[in-house]
Amino acid sequence: MMKFNPKLSQKLSYLVLFLASTLAIMPVIVIIFIIVKNGMSVISWEFLVSMPKNGMREGGILPAIIGTFVIVMCTIMLTLPTGVCAAVYLNEYARDNTLTRAIKLGIVNLAGVPSVVYGLFGFGIFVMFLKLGVSIISGVLTLSIMELPVIVTTSRNALNSVPYSFREASWALGVGRWQTIRHIVLPNALPGIMTGAVLSIARISGETAPILFTAAAFYAPHLPHSIFDQVMTLPYHLYIISTQIPNMPNNIIFGTALVLLFMILTISFVAIFVRVYFRKHEKW
Amino acid sequence: MRKIIDTMIEKVIFLCGMLSVIFVILIFSFLFIESFAFFRGFNIIKFIAGRYWYPDSEPVSFGIFSLLVGSFLVTLGACLIAVPLSVMTALYISEVVSKNVRDILKSLVELMAAIPSVVIGFIGMIVLVPCVRKLFNIPTGLTAFSGSVMLAFMAIPTIVTISEDAIRSVPRQYKEGALALGATKWQTIRRIVLKTARPGIIAAVMLGIGRVIGETMTVMMVTGNSSRIPHSIFEPVRTMTAVIAAEIGETVSGSMHYKALFSIGLVLFLITFIINFAAELFLGKNKNK
User: Which residue in A87, A99, A141, A136 sits closest to A118, CA to CA?
Assistant: First the structure.
C-alpha cells in the first residue's frame, strides 16, 4: 500500500476543511445579499410609517413594526429580572443538593423544548384556561417562559466568570452576602448579562411559532390600544404575506424581510460590540 | 432594617430560581393531562402507529405515524448535511486559522444563528424550491429534501459553536505532546484533538438535532405539508411541528382534535427531553476530563 506523505496529506486536509467552512458559512452572506438586493427598492419612509392597504398588497408595515417592538419590550422587561434573580440564586446561594440539580435539569430542558410546544402551552393555559384571549399579554407571557432559560444560562456564565477572590475580599471586610452580590458581583457581571439580554431580544424579535396562536393577528385595522388587543408582528406578517396571500408582489415581501433582518442584525451587532468592548476593559 | 430587606431579597431570588422547575412541571402536566384525556378516547397504539391523520373526516383517525416519519426524514437529511460540514468548520475555525480570521468567522456563524426561521423559510421558498423542482425534475419542489437543506443551515451554527468549545477545551499538553513526537499538525488534530473532544462534539450534534426536530416555520413553508407517508426524500412530507402550528387555531377547545394536538406536543416534549438529557450527560463527560 502506498503511504501518503504526511505534509501533503496535511495540505489536502486543510483544503477540505477550508472548502467545508466556506460551504457552511457562505449561505449566510448569500441570504443577506439576496434580501438586500431585492428588498432595497421598496424601502422608503412611506413604507415604514404607513398602514397596509389593499389586502396588504400595498402600503406599509407600521403596525407590524410597532407590534414587534411592544411584544419584545414587554417580554424582556418580564423575563430579564426574573432570569437574573434565578441565576444569582443558582450561582451565589444554592448548595449542590438535589433541589439545585433539579433546577439545573429544569433549565436545560426548558431550553430544549421546541418553540411551537411553548406556543401550544401558552395557547392552552393563557388564551383558553385563563381566558386572556389571543392578546399581547398571552404572547408576552408565552415568550417570557420560553426565553427564561436562555437568560438564566447566559447570566449564570457571566456571574461565574467574576473571580471568587472578589467575593472573599468583600466578605473579609464584614460585608453581608446580598450586599456583596449587589455591589461587587453584579456590577462586574453586568457586561455578560447585557450581552445575553441583547441576544435574547434579537431572538424574540424573530420568533413566530410561539405567538402564532397566542398574540398574532392576520390583519389589524388599527394599532393596539391595550395589552388585551391582538397585534401584527413582523415575522408573522412575513409568514402571512409569503404564504397566504395570492398575487402578493414579491418586492413587498422582500422589503418586509429586509426590515426584519436589518432589525435583528443590528441588535446582534450591538451585542457583539458590547462584548468586544467590555472584554478589553475587564478588571481581571 | 437592612437585615429584613436583605432576607426579603434573598427570598425573592430563591423564588425566581424555583420558577424554572415550576414551569417544567406545569408544561409537562398540562400536556400530560390533555393527552391522558385523549388516550382514554383513542387507543395510544393507534395514535403512534396509525398511518392516517384525518382529524376532520368521518370516522376520524389520529394516526401520527406519517408525521413521525416526516419529522424523522427531514431531521435525518438535515443531519447528514450539517454534521460533517459543522464539525469540519469547527476544526478549521479553532485549529487552522489565525485569531483575526477566527473572530470574523465566529461572528458570521453568530449572525447565521440570528436569522429568523421565517426569513430562512421564505428564502427556501423563493430560491431553493424552484431549483429543486428543476434539478430533479419532480412535480413539486416542496419536499423533505428542501426542508433538510434549509434546516441543515439552521443546525450549523448550533453544532459549530458547541463543538468549537469542545475542541478548544482540549488541554494544550495533549497537542504539544503529539507535536513533540514528530506528528504533523493535521495528524495531531485527527488523532488527538478529535478523539479528546468527541463527547463534546456528540453533545453538539444532539443539541443540533434537538433544534431541527423542533423547528416549525421553515418546515411549514418548504416541505409541502402532505400527510402521506413518503417513499423517498423527494416527496412532500408533514412534520409534527407543522401539524400543531397549522391546525391548533382551527380546533374547538376541548375537542378530540384539540387534545390530539396536545398529545403530539407531548411526544415532541419527550423526544427533546431525552435528546437534551443525553447531550447534557456527554457535556458533563467532556468537562471531567
Answer: A141
Which of A21, A114, A123 lies nearest to residue B88, judging by beta carbons? A21
Maximum pairwise Cα distance, chain A: 78
Closest in B111, B186, B217 to A28, CB measured? B111
For B271-284, give the secondary structure using H, E and C. Answer: HHHHHHHHHHHHHH
Question: Using H for helix, E for strand and C for coil, what is the string for B124-151?
Answer: HHHHHHHHHHHHHCCCCCCCHHHHHHHH
Task: Show residues of chain A in contact with B105, CB under 8 Å.
Answer: 21, 25
Stretch among A245-249, A251-255, B24-28, B188-192 having the lowest mean pLDDT = A245-249
Q: How far apart are CA B28 and CA A121, in angstroms?
A: 9
Q: Return the C-alpha cell found at A254.
A: 422582500
- The answer to whether the Cβ–Cβ distance between B88 and A272 falls below 8 Å is no
- ipTM of the complex, rounded to two decimals: 0.88
Predicted confidence band at B286 (pLDDT cuts at 50, 70, 90)?
A: low
The nearest alpha carbon in chain A to B109 belongs to A25
- The C-alpha atoms of residue A147 and residue B185 are separated, in whole angstroms, by 41
Where does A79-163+191-280 sit in CATH, by number?
Answer: 1.10.3720.10
CA distances B117 to A89, A243, B282, Å, are 33, 14, 28
CB within 8 Å: B276 and A109: yes
Kindly report the pTM of this predicted structure.
Answer: 0.90
Identify the pLDDT of residue A151.
93
Average of pLDDT values for B72-93? 94
Out of A20, A86, A239, name the one closest to residue B20 (CB): A86
Residue with cell 479528546: B196
Cβ within 8 Å of B, A 126-145: 128, 145
For residue B110, give the chain A residue with the closest CA. Answer: A268
Q: In angstroms, what CA-CA distances link B266 with A40, A113, A122, A249, B206? A: 43, 10, 14, 39, 19
What's the rounded Cα separation, in Å, for the pair B213 and B201?
A: 18
In chain B, residues with a C-beta closer than 8 Å to the C-beta of A242 are: 118, 121-122, 125, 221
Per-residue pLDDT band at B289 (split at 50, 70, 90): very low
The number of beta carbons lying within 10 Å of the beta carbon of residue B2 is 9
Q: Tell me the C-alpha to C-alpha distance, in Å, between residue B150 and each of A4, A108, A112, B100.
A: 37, 26, 20, 29
Q: What confidence tens digit (pLDDT) does each residue in B262-275 have?
A: 999 999 999 998 99
3-state secondary structure of A282: coil
A61/chain B closest Cα distance in angstroms: 16
Q: What would the mean pLDDT of B39-60 be, rounded to a whole number?
A: 82
How distant, in Å, are the alpha carbons of A156, A166, A241, A251, B74 from that of B240? 33, 50, 23, 32, 11
Amino acid sitting at position A150: V
> What mean pLDDT comes out for the span A67-87?
92
Domain range annotation of chain A: 79-163+191-280
B193 within 8 A of B95, measured Cβ to Cβ: yes
Nearest to A63 by CA among A223, A235, A182: A223
Chain B nearest C-alpha distance from A80 (Å): 11
Q: Do residues A237 and A61 lie in contact, with contact meaning Cβ atoms separated by under 8 Å?
A: yes
